[in-house]
Amino acid sequence: xxxxxxxxxxxxxxxxxxxxxxxxxIPQNPSLSFTLSESVxxxxxxxxxxxxxxxxLFEGKHAPNFETKISTFRTLWxxxxxxxxxxxxxxxxxxxxxHSAGIASSASSMASLSLCFSELLKxxxxxxxxxxxxxxxxxxxxxxxxxxxxxxxxxGVVTWGQWREGTSDxxxxxxxxxxxxxxxxxxxxxxxxxxxxPVSSRQGHALMMDHPYAESRFSNARNRxxxxxxxxxxxxxxxxCEIVETEALExxxxxxxxxxxxxxxxxxxLAIIEKVRAFRIETKIPACFTLDAGPNIHxxxxxxxxxxxxxxxxxxxxxxxxxxxxxxDKVGMGPEVFGAK
Length: 341
Ligand code: 2P0
What we know:
It is a single chain. By secondary structure, the chain is α+β, with helices and mostly antiparallel strands. Helices cover 39% and strands 25% of the residues. The strands form 3 sheets. Strands 1, 4, 5, 6, 7, 8, 9 and 14 form an 8-stranded mixed sheet that branches. Strands 11-12-10-13 form a 4-stranded antiparallel sheet. Helix 2 crosses helix 3 (131-145) and helix 6 packs antiparallel against helix 7. The longest helix is centred in the middle third of the chain and has 21 residues, at 214-234. Bound molecules: ligand 2P0. Ligand 2P0 binds at residues 14, 17-19, 25, 31, 106, 146-148, 201-202, 205, 251, 292-293.
């Protein structure tokens, strides 16, 4: 095969979390995220006219688990664009971060795949949309692959879920007025454990269905999002830190209060949380933590304080990290398409 499309899509970290869904990957509440820069998936789709075969290689090797997921994803596209059935595809995917690092890879992988399919269909004259609709369509398909993936189609500060004009439950959109103000923020991803999680995000979402606090959670998240939006617009950094931390702990509180209950944090996660709060009080640097559905901590901070943060991580937090590892990430510009031929 000589024709190919190659895309890179980043991971993202939610500040207001998506936790609980209905219908076909429709979120129970709107979410808001920073798109990352260094934690990315690179996907190459080689294609030629054929019988509709799909071959998938993850980091150079056949991966049967992923292959099933990719075939299901391909069928979704074929339902809307039947001409895609006339192509053989060879898909090669790799992450910039180690697969076992416990960093969410479904967001970047489904976003990069969705973008590659969109570009392929555009190149072949099957899909013809203006730039905004093109991204909304790609985001909407990414959402069907993995909810949080729909936010990875855009750079900067991104929202998914209906809450103001132009937002939708079906796809994400950038919040340009916030991207402008928050593009110089860092995210030190502190790796606490790379062990497989005892409860997957899919199971966690499902446990929100008859969660005792479901209704108050969904309305809290909605109110918190509008509050965070205002605070970010005003660049009230300390208030930002308070809201982001409360939201992260609420997510993990929901897990602890699920039936059955589960805990994804580790003792080291909690020790880091306490140290981050003490660091903020001592130094007056507006650095704060958030967590995904896992034990790792995302330490968010203004990039102008990078030297201080690096010292803090290396001197005080490093003993709490798995092999002392952390990923030096920051807010990024969104996906890239290149190498199309
Ligand atoms: C988020 N998470 O907003 C939240 C916060 C984890 C914690 O979305 O079932 O992999 O594929 O839609 O997107 C993780 O769940 O779940 C997630 P699916 P996904 O980022």
